Amino acid sequence: MPSLFFRMQIHDIHHVQITVAPDQVEAARQFYCGVLGLPEIEKPDSLKGRGGFWILAGSRQVHIGIEEGVNRHATKAHIAYQVNDLAAWHQHLTAHGISIGDSVPISGFDRFEFRDPFGNRIEFIQPR
């Protein structure tokens, strides 16, 4: 009989969460929904009082919560969004004043990274 560990499986990712300072929520909404074009989705009533908002990236949820006292510029933690036109995104982001950084090459992919206006690290990746 297989052990419990081998019968259990993690089969998907439901959501990821990033954070912004409490006074940056509206600016974050403008960046993620406006600049990146990600649709906002309704939070459950039981969580609305906690602040922040949720968006949808493909079929995955990204929760933008609020958190104080975090140095987001010092972390390697990030979300990698798969895109279909990396060059167009590069142009779009730089037109909005976003500084693009190089990423370490990965075979079979083109990619770059940047920090959102709130310090969260973001990667855009495209299969070759």
CATH architecture classification: Roll
* Range of helix content: 10-25%
How much of the residues is beta strand, in percent?
25-35%
Overall SS class: alpha/beta
* Sequence of secondary-structure elements: HEHEEEEHEEE
CATH class category label: Alpha Beta
Can you tell me the number of structural domains?
A: 1
Give the helix tally. Answer: 3
- Rg of Cα set: 17 Å
CATH topology call:
2,3-Dihydroxybiphenyl 1,2-Dioxygenase, domain 1
Number of strands: 8
Q: Identify low-pLDDT runs.
A: none
Strand order of the largest sheet: 1-4-3-2
Multimerization status = single chain
Report the average pLDDT across residues.
92
Largest sheet: 4 strands, mixed
State the gist of this model.
Helices cover 20% and strands 33% of the residues. With 128 residues, it is α/β, with parallel strands linked by helices.
Fold and architecture overview:
It is a single chain. This protein has helices spanning 4-7, 25-35, 86-95, and strands spanning 15-20, 40-41, 53-57, 60-66, 78-82, 100-102, 109-115, 121-127. It has 128 residues and is α/β, with parallel strands linked by helices. The protein has one domain (4-127): 2,3-Dihydroxybiphenyl 1,2-Dioxygenase, domain 1. The strands form two sheets. Strands 1-4-3-2 form a four-stranded mixed β-sheet, covered by helices on one side. Strands 5-8-7-6 form a four-stranded mixed β-sheet. The longest helix is centred in the first third of the chain and has 11 residues, at 25-35. It is globular and about 40 Å long.
